[in-house]
Amino acid sequence: MMSGPTLLLLGCGKMGGALAKGWVDAKHPPRLIIIDRKLQNAPGNSVIYRQVSDLPKDTRPDFVVLAIKPAASEAMLRELSQHLGSNLENSALLSVMAGKNCATLAKASGRDDRAVIRTMPNTPASVGAGATGIYFSPQVTQSQKQLATELMEQVGDVVIVPHEDDLRSVIAVSGSSPAYVFLLAELLEKAGTELGLDQNASRKLARSVIYGAGKMLHDLDDDASVLRNNVTSPNGTTAAALKVLMTEENWPQSVRKASQEAVRRAKELDD
Ligand SMILES: NC(=O)C1=CN([C@@H]2O[C@H](COP(=O)(O)OP(=O)(O)OC[C@H]3O[C@@H](n4cnc5c(N)ncnc54)[C@H](OP(=O)(O)O)[C@@H]3O)[C@@H](O)[C@H]2O)C=CC1
Ligand SMILES: O=C(O)[C@@H]1CCC=N1
Which end of the chain is more exposed for a tag (fewer CB within 10 A), N or C? Predict the structure, then answer.
């Protein structure tokens, strides 16, 4: 990695906190300055302030990382640009927010031509196993692109997308979807207990299978369908179960509809 950037992280909640934890635990941790109302969320080696007005005025971040709710972002950026003045001149914005496009964020930061890196990470970043989609606005320099890519690669896999709107599809595929996987863990655990297993045993098995299947998908090159077929003995138990799940109106339709709903909501948030 090039010399570590200074990050000003706005918001250290679920996503900002996951990134901060991932970065602090990474091989080349960036210098982390955090603004969050809940002061207790800062991981070790970072500096935290409760609000923009507490930040030293000579702070010169390489990246302002926006991890607050989209609705709060413009006001916070306006306040930051007034507070830091010319010290914000060369900073790029790095948004992880599901909403607010590059142009809106640049404008709120006081410069229409501000470099904006829009990303869509996910909470597995907290354990270095994240997946992030990145879009670079035309103003982002080559060295900013490299720094931002390396930064997100420290907490997982990175995909760079050519169009800003592609980030909505990234939200559907990897931003929101850890929640579906956690839901699957909940449902498997519940099904196991309903079938008579002790709850702790069911919980352990459900969590372990998702980890194991995830590790195979991560470590092996085989298509997911090949891995699925390897489990599916002809006329066996898996075939019987998949007959239910793979019926068009069950998982295929549900996953398609859920993805479309995530994209619809992302469009609403994206003004
Ligand atoms: N959660 C996820 O899995 C993902 C979230 N994102 C994006 O990340 C962003 C944040 O989401 P998430 O982390 O879930 O939300 P959280 O509410 O958990 O985190 C936001 C944090 O910022 C703080 N905050 C907000 N405004 C201010 C302010 N003006 N001054 C100081 N602190 C402030 C909040 O404090 P308080 O609670 O007191 O308001 C909170 O601690 C969203 O834009 C979302 O789209 C992207 C990918 C995945
Ligand atoms: O639910 C949300 O809006 C955010 C974006 C992706 C995951 N969480």
Answer: C
Q: How many whole angstroms separate alpha carbon 149 and alpha carbon 160?
A: 9
- Tell the burial category of 112 from Cβ atoms under 10 Å away from its Cβ (0-12, 13-18, 19+): exposed
Q: What is the ipTM of this complex?
A: 0.98
Question: What are the angstrom distances between the C-alpha of 104 and each of 58, 93, 132?
Answer: 25, 11, 21
Distance CA 166, CA 169 (A): 5
Residues within the annotated binding site for NADP(+)?
10-15, 67-70
**pLDDT at residue 80, rounded to an integer:** 98
Separation of 14 CA from ligand 1 center, angstroms? 6
Residue 176 CB less than 6 A away from ligand 2: yes
Q: What is the pTM of this model?
A: 0.95
95 lines ligand 2 (CB under 6 A): no
Substitution site in 96, 120, 176 for ligand 2 pocket (most atoms within 8 Å of beta carbon): 176
* Domains of the chain from N-terminus onward: 6-164 (3.40.50.720), 178-269 (1.10.3730.10)
Ligand 1 atom with minimal separation from the 69 CA:
43
Q: Say what the pLDDT of residue 3 is.
A: 55
The residues of the chain scoring below 50 in pLDDT are 1-2
Torsion of CA 189, 195, 201, 203, to 10 degrees: 0
Q: Is 198 exposed, middle or buried (0-12, 13-18, 19+ CB in 10 A)?
A: exposed
